[in-house]
Amino acid sequence: MLELCISGKTVEIFRAKEPDSPVVYLNSYAKDGKAVYSELRRICQKPFSLVVISSLEWNRDMVPWSHPALADKAEPFLGGADDYLDVLGKEIVPQVEARIGHTGGRVIAGYSLAGLFSIYSLYRTDLFSRAISASGSLWFPHFKEFVFSNELKANPEKIYFSIGDRESHTTNPYLRRAEDDTRAMEEYFRHKGIETCFILNKGNHYKNVVARTADAISWSIG
């Protein structure tokens, strides 16, 4: 594993030995790259490179536009996804791939708000041929309307969606839409001819994060 600091972000690179393997860019809230990589090596037989990016300004970097906090003592959303995507595309991806060589396709992956960012990125760049929104925050205010009324930069080959079966059991008017909005977006992209997967996991948002993330990546590179 090689660890870099690029534009203030921690970048962990787990490089495939085989040439032309897909590279997965995983935006992570926690520095959990080793755990995800270990689980992937256990469940996935296909070669891949995993790039885990952390030290993110979570409520800024992963969020497409600003919105007030959803609860008392919570942080507001600051809408910096376009700025971070610029850093990702112009600095992180080139520096990583200068070290790992040519890849067999790029996957953009994330859990929670990073899953929201994965889908949003498909509308802003054609860098990624596959996307993962694992327990993605697709309930984010006005995001479903954005998805349905804008055009993708290019149709990806695959998109993975998952949600916990307890995530919508809340009185919060936004969060209670989590499962419905995720299902609606999966159906929307499937009807556009994109290969999709929808998984309803057992438990709430915080259960088995590493395993859920690894399962999503394994499907996306299969």
From the helix content, strand content and strand pairing, which structural class follows?
Answer: alpha/beta
Distance between the termini: 23 Å
Unreliable spans: none
In total, the number of strands is 10
Name the assembly state: single chain
Radius of gyration: 16 Å
Taken in chain order, the helices and strands follow as: EEEHEHEEHEHEHEHEH
Instruction: Note the overall shape.
Output: globular
Specify the helix fraction band. Answer: 25-40%
- Biggest sheet: strands, sense, closure? 8 strands, mixed
Description:
This protein is of the alpha/beta class and 222 residues long. Helices cover 35% and strands 23% of the residues. The protein has 7 helices and 10 strands. It has an 8-stranded mixed beta sheet with strand order 1-2-4-3-7-8-9-10, sandwiched between helices. The chain has a two-stranded antiparallel ribbon with strand order 5-6. α4 (113-121) links the parallel β7 (106-111) and β8 (130-134). The longest helix has 20 residues, at 81-100. The model has no long low-confidence stretch (mean pLDDT 95).
Keywords summarizing the entry:
single chain; 222 residues; 8-stranded mixed sheet; two-stranded antiparallel sheet; 7 helices; 10 strands
Helices and strands in order, then pairings?
Elements (H helix, E strand, L loop, with lengths): L1 E5 L2 E6 L8 E5 L5 H11 L5 E6 L3 H4 L4 E2 L9 E2 L2 H20 L5 E6 L1 H9 L8 E5 L8 H7 L8 E7 L13 H14 L3 E7 L7 H12 L2
Helix pairs in contact: 1-7
In a nutshell, what does this entry contain?
With 222 residues, this protein is α/β, with parallel strands linked by helices. The chain is built from seven helices and ten strands.
